[in-house]
Amino acid sequence: MSKKRSVISAFGKYTPERVLTNSDLEKMVDTTDAWIRTRTGIVERHLVAKGEATAQMSIQAFADMQKRFPVDPEEIDLIVVATVTPDMFFPSTAALIQNGIGAKNAFGFDVSAACSGFLYALVVATQFVENDQYKKVLVFGADTMSSITDYTNRDTCVLFGDGAGVVLLEAMEDDDTSGIFDHILKMDGAGKDFLYMLGGGSLHPATHETVDQKMHFIYQEGKAVFKFAVSRMAAVSEEILNRNSLTGKDVSIFIPHQANKRIIDVCVERLNFKTEQVLLNIDRYGNTTAATIPIGMVEAFDDGRIKDGDIVLLSAFGAGFTWGSVLVRWGHLRHA
After folding, report:
1. In terms of domains, do 169 and 117 share one?
2. Distance CA 275, CA 295 (A)
3. Domain-embedded: residue 22
4. Any residues with CB less than 8 A from the CB of 136 and at least 6 apart, and which?
5. Which of 20, 84, 203, 260 has minimal CB crowding within 10 Å?
């Protein structure tokens, strides 16, 4: 089999209609709009409606992609879903999506790497494409963070939102310069004590006690996560640029995971990026975990900030700890 190049040929996004503003949160916990904006850069976030969850948001993101770049669902070979908030333990979110979009010829699976999840899923899917095994692969990043957020805890409830994004990977000849041309993924399990959700797994199955102790909500030590995120996301971004003999000036747009504006600002400063090189939408969505980067990619395209031949840098960090970067040379979008 000849090796192929994995190209992002289509994409879509979805965020729920319901909006939770900082003003709303002022009525729920001891916080202020000014405090939230200063500490996080967030103004509002979107939350699912009753009965709406990760799989349905993903199906809506696929519908958005179909409006932009139509593709026959029966031509999809593989579905990879990055999420830490599946509708249920099993079957997989990928199975629910496959049924929902009519991709009857596809197989699929979920990837769990928290906020780094989309990059992990993108790299895994790329291996299938590059080895010429599959022609069309859907990669989703989707999370319903409101389902694991404690809205009495001001340290976490101000941060998270719900959303989904999807990209379609297609195979191109390896001598084509477009597509995903490098990636670095990393993990340090020693970070497990700083960002997690304990309840509901095999170690702490759901009981009245786990519910009463709020073990089914996300927990994080903010200072430790901030310090880690700033150092690792900047370092891995520098590493991938250096090994490709690139500098910040060569990057058309930097799309970082949207966790906290202060984290992004420090990374941007260390990487010497200009403001116009950076995608920032955390003010409107908050942290949608695995969905931040695909949503950002769609918005960057819609705003005319990405064109054929541009080098796009994607970087993220998340629970685990996990982190990574992916370099993409833009091109070969499907025709609407």
Report:
1. yes
2. 19
3. yes
4. 71, 75, 76, 77, 78, 168, 169, 170
5. 203
CB 303 within 8 A of CB 267: no
pTM assigned to the model: 0.97
Tokens describing residue 155: 């340290």
Sign, Cα dihedral of 330, 331, 332, 334: positive
- For tokens 């939770």, the residue is 20
Mean pLDDT of 28-43: 98
Has residue 90 been placed in a domain?
Answer: yes
Residues 47 and 90 in one domain: yes
Helix, strand, coil content of the chain in percent (nearest 5): 40, 25, 35
- Catalytic residue numbers? 115, 257, 287
Average pLDDT of the residues of the chain:
97
- 201-220 burial, b at 16+ Cβ within 10 Å, e below that, comes to eeeeeeeeebeeeebbbbbb
Please report, for the domain that includes residue 25, its CATH number: 3.40.47.10
Write out pLDDT tens, residues 2-28: 678 999 999 999 999 999 999 999 999
